[in-house]
Automatic annotation (TrEMBL):
Cofactor: Zn(2+)
Protein name (record): Endo-1,4-beta-xylanase
Residue ranges the record marks as coiled coil: none
Compositionally biased intervals (Polar residues): 117-141
Sequence ranges assigned to domain Fibronectin type-III in this UniProt record: 31-133
Organism: Micromonospora saelicesensis
Tree of life domain: Bacteria
């Protein structure tokens, strides 16, 4: 019932008094300021309580009482939640996700409003049995439980329990394949569950074609709440017959990495066994754990991701989130990530009762900045729509019952489980937009236009109004000395820089720059003893952060190489050495000589392009008004180009990096034969007006 204005109360009271002798007030009429219409909706590990708001209420208290099957209390009532107006974006339909109980038990809930410290009457009670842990205890597969579940959240699932549990899911479900991505410093396996319906695609390239999603569950070993959610969700995805689940898994592949930091988890430390914070290493990949994850991103090409953490600010929301903010992240990826967080998670959180907010909300401190070493930013720079998730590690004033350790852990884990399911739903509903953002991002990155920023974030708005006292996450705008307005075409590395021994890994033995660049999946052109990393590539925003002298956390000081070919040029052109064309118009045939390389952006070539035995041909945002023939060349990338055709890619051996032909229009036939590996389109389809041969038939 709405609280009435004092004058109206006076009038209604007068009427009530006048009518008392004739008609008594109905016994079931709620007093003013009593919460009404309380409902309790059950979900996995939590209960959504919803009620009619009371005008003038400053907050609400949520009371929970354990009861038996007859509804008789078996324990004391406890205030388990405080709803405050900063919880959700829709104040007219208050909801609260109550978690922190043993799933399957039966409870009675009541809710009351408070005006300041003045408590109003409790609502009528609602009694319900909560949802038991997912999976029929007698059905094979479904009956599996994690160590955390069987100990009623008294213990986290151990490393050996995790391996046994994931192996059992793998053995019992056709939908799941467990692959080992690598090993930790202490030789623990880093496993990934590859989940699809009816079976997951069999190779990384085939998985990539399904626009997969990736959840990184536990990078900080002492933040284990998300990992337990991942393990429970894996069981649901593996065995559920819910049409929603089978539909989700029929339209993508879910990649779950429960524990990238197995050593840190086993020892309950933030860093790995060397003390390295792995979430400050995803760009540098000094450690085997981060290297394994980045190689996975290269090979499986997830289009969207979540990265699970816990955070110690007890005043912040249940679920602080944050998109990739680094200013080198392509705008469409930033926008899509914000759409996922603000457009989906905030709205769905207000329905389910979970308090999603920007990481850094409620005085969250100097967190969530632009370091490209953080997975959130690394993934954004790899054109992956993604978010950080920070489970609030302690209950705080809004969850006063969570001095109980098990209850606190349950709230964290089941709020993460909710988030990850919502993430899958978002991908299912917005897949086309996610893929469009990715395509636009890759094309704009490969175009190599605009300034480069070495450190600096985009601003993030505060949680939308009404949110009293809320402030936006801190902003680390780029300082002038970390901005490069005129981007180079490429970085040139000496052989010592590229292949030289390093000491920045575990035990003082690091992998080479060449190995790390290969793990990132960047194209490199080698001419003699020089190694060129062109910027007209999909990860253009990340390359300078590692290879430019201005890089704050860089691998080496590469030499900036600027274009030598610009403006108009008439007559045949024979390319020798490393030649870079930008904003050029070349009227005449172009031949890339054996051992030479051509890199173009915003360039038009009028005449055939021929390269035989070349070191590399990388074209982006360019036009060839004639045929193109590229054979026995070491490095090939054609992105967002228009070629009159025919195009012939034959007999190219490009090592670990497949020839790229993406987002390109060919007004003629496309012939691809004898290339090793087979060309890829990075998930961006080409338009080919003529016939295509086998290796390029699906591009
Ligand atoms: Zn963390």
């Amino acid at each position: 019932m709405r609280r009435q204005r004092p004058t109206l109360i006076a009038v209604s009271t007068l009427i009530a008094i006048t009518l008392t002798t004739a008609a008594p007030t109905p016994a079931n009429a709620a007093p003013p300021d009593q919460v009404t219409a309380l409902t309790a909706h059950q979900a996995d590990g939590y209960t959504t309580l919803a009620w009619q708001p009371v005008d003038g209420a400053t907050d609400y208290q949520i009371e929970r009482t354990p009861v038996d099957a007859n509804g008789t209390p078996t324990g004391a009532p406890t205030i388990v939640g405080i709803w405050r107006p900063n919880r959700q974006i829709n104040q007219q339909a208050p909801t609260f996700a109550d978690a922190g109980y043993n799933p399957g038990d039966t409870f009675q809930w009541r809710v009351r409003a408070r005006n300041g410290t003045t408590e109003q009457p409790y609502s009528d009670p609602v009694t319900a049995t909560t949802t038991a842990p997912w999976g029929n205890p007698t059905t094979p597969g479904e009956q599996l439980r994690t160590g955390w579940e069987t100990t009623h959240a008294a213990q986290y699932t151990s490393d050996t329990d995790e391996y046994a549990y994931t192996a059992a899911i793998d053995a019992l479900s056709d939908r799941v394949r467990v692959v080992e991505l690598g090993r930790t410093v202490q030789n623990r396996p880093i496993n990934m569950m590859v989940i699809g319906h009816p079976t997951p695609a069999t190779t990384p390239e085939a998985v990539a074609a399904t626009a997969p999603v990736a959840i990184n569950c536990n990078v900080h070993g002492n933040e284990p709440g998300d990992r337990e959610a991942c393990l429970i969700m894996a069981r649901q995805l593996a065995f559920s017959t819910d049409p929603r689940i089978t539909d989700l898994l029929s339209h993508t592949t879910v990649l779950i990495v429960p524990t990238i930091n197995g050593d840190g988890r086993a020892n309950n430390t933030r860093g790995n066994s060397t003390g390295q914070d792995l979430n400050r290493d995803y760009s540098l990949i000094r450690q085997p754990e981060t290297t394994a994850y980045i190689k996975m991103v290269r090979d499986y090409r997830p289009v969207a991701g979540y990265d699970g953490h816990e955070f110690g600010n007890s005043r912040a929301g249940d679920l602080p989130m944050l998109p990739p903010r680094h200013q080198n992240v392509a705008q469409p990826i930033f926008d899509q990530s914000q759409d996922m967080i603000e457009g989906h998670m905030y709205a769905k959180g207000a329905e389910a009762g979970w308090w999603a907010c920007p990481y850094g909300c409620e005085g969250g401190g100097n967190v969530g900045l632009s370091e490209e070493t953080i997975l959130r930013n690394t993934l954004g720079l790899k054109n992956v729509t993604n978010s950080l998730l920070e489970l609030r590690s302690s209950g705080g004033q809004t969850r006063p019952d969570e001095g109980n350790t098990a209850n606190n852990r349950r709230r964290k884990t089941y709020s993460a489980l909710w988030t990850f399911h919502q993430f899958l739903d978002y991908h299912r509903a917005d897949r086309a937009d996610i893929l469009k953002a990715r395509s636009e991002a890759i094309e704009s990155q490969a175009g190599n236009t605009g300034r480069l920023v070495f450190r600096g974030s985009r601003p993030i708005p505060a949680h939308p109004a009404p949110h009293p006292g809320d402030s936006p996450p801190p902003l680390d705008a780029p300082p002038a000395d970390l901005i490069l307005d005129n981007p180079p075409c490429a970085y040139k590395l000496t052989d010592a820089q590229y292949n030289g021994a390093r000491t920045d890994g575990p035990g003082g033995v690091g992998t080479t720059v060449a190995q790390r660049i290969a793990a990132h999946g960047w194209n490199v052109i080698t001419i003699g003893d020089d190694h060129y990393v062109p910027l007209n590539q999909p990860e253009r925003g990340l390359i300078p952060l590692l290879l430019d002298g201005k890089g704050v956390e860089k691998l080496t000081d590469g030499e900036r190489v600027y274009p030598t070919l610009t403006g108009r040029r008439n007559g045949p052109l024979a390319v020798t050495g490393f030649t870079c064309a930008d904003d050029a118009t070349i009227n005449g045939p172009v031949t890339v000589r054996a051992g030479a390389a051509l890199v173009t952006t915003a360039t038009t070539i009028s005449g055939p392009l021929t390269a035989t035995g070349a070191a590399g041909v990388l074209l982006a945002d360019s036009t060839i008004n004639g045929p193109a023939r590229i054979a026995t060349t070491d490095t090939i990338s054609i992105i967002d180009a228009t070629i009159a055709g025919p195009v012939d890619l034959s007999g190219n051996t490009t090592g670990t990096d497949a020839p790229v032909l993406a987002g390109t229009t060919i007004r003629g036939p496309l012939n691809c034969t004898g290339n090793d590996p087979t060309p890829t389109n990075l998930g961006i389809t080409n338009t080919v007006h003529g016939p295509r041969t086998t290796q390029c038939a699906a591009l």
